[in-house]
Design goal:
Mean pLDDT: 80
Structural class: alpha+beta
CATH architecture of the largest domain: 2-Layer Sandwich
Order of helices and strands: EEEEEEEHEHHHHEHHEEEEEEHEEEEH
CATH superfamily of the largest domain: Chloramphenicol acetyltransferase-like domain
Helix content: 25-40%
Radius of gyration: 25 Å
Largest sheet: 7 strands, mixed
Number of strands: 19
CATH topology of the largest domain: Chloramphenicol Acetyltransferase
Length: 441
Amino acid sequence: MPQMGESIAEGTLSKWLKKVGDPVKRDEPIFEISTDKVDAEIPAPSSGVLAEILVTEGQTVPVQTLVARLETDVNAAITATTPAPAPAAATAASAPATAAVGGPPRQENTGASAPSSHQSAAPAATPAQSNGNSFEDRVRTKSSPLVRRMAADAGVELSSLQGSGIAGRVTKKDLVEFLESGGAKTAPRAPTGTQPVVAHGPAAEAWPGDTVEPMSKMRALIADHMVMSRHTSAHVSSFFEVDFTRIARIRAKQRAEFEKATGEKLTYLPFIIKAVSDGLRAHPVLNASVGNREVIYRKPINIGIAVALDWGLIVPVIKNADNLSLTGLTRTLNDLANRARTKKLDPREVQDGTFTITNPGVFGSLIGTPIINQPQVGILCIGAIEKRPKVITGADGEDTIAIRTCAYLSLSFDHRIVDGADADKFMAYVKRTLESFPEQV
């Protein structure tokens, strides 16, 4: 199981793309994993034949756990192979002509069985004395960046909690339950069956004839994250109508030249990202986070763009968006979106966002009130961009009805640190920028 990011301690093997006995080429995707950051396809470290599968689909195991063996000796690969019945980790070193999949060969003999997706893993051995830097200590206290920030905001010492994650790692669910219980120390519930999504009411029960499917890891994480965000931030929404007629004319006039020069289609979204980036620089409280009784003003402007997938939602991040031109924004946006849909994103590309934009307007939605992407304090929603009859005042002062290209933009913001006046000034800035965009892109 590869290390997919500094703060990621475990991963769920969600799907095998090859079966035992299949030939595999070097760098060919061999299995898919899900983490609390990203879904990704993992390439084979070398060419050969998939000789043994050690971690089955749906299992969650620590990083560097051996998940399979590749037979790199073609002659030896002719020998019939069968899938391992259920072991989750290697207990013996592989033969010299085999390659470990998911971790460096030197760590092949883990000495521990990997847990199922509903079990907490235990380390193979625990040192007699701990100096605070053991595997358990590091995993539990590092947790995820989100959990660490939540704990800091609430004044909770993570090392004092025993979580239900790998090696006692404190998860978002553990921390939310701890805080909702009034902060009283309680032993975590024994993890049995499917872990429930954080909720404040009774779970629904299936009726006869219903179809019941377990949540994917991504869907469960999205659910937890959304409930936690509503629990954390004081959500308020503001709505503005923006006239995109000028940008529509710019696109129509320069689209062919732009696509010929860059190989990219010129859509409305890069214009909006550019206006938002400039607006965040002018109104930094929207590019901030809430600390422990303090406001953290982020120096970089990193714009997350929500991308709808067939199996969920992911938010890749355009780093330092304010330093990019319209061409740079277009290329970066299209690259991230394409790789998100093909599971090629690096976990670092979905981290460190400071503000998020979501665009349900492409599906026909007119307006929305999205949930803030923690630990950010603002998220912009783009409604459908369409032609509407509008009353406009001419140079002679007379009112006329004209056809204009318009859309509703809504901002959900955290009222803990963002006042309504600040939010509306930011939105007015974005509106003004879009309606007076320079002719030359």
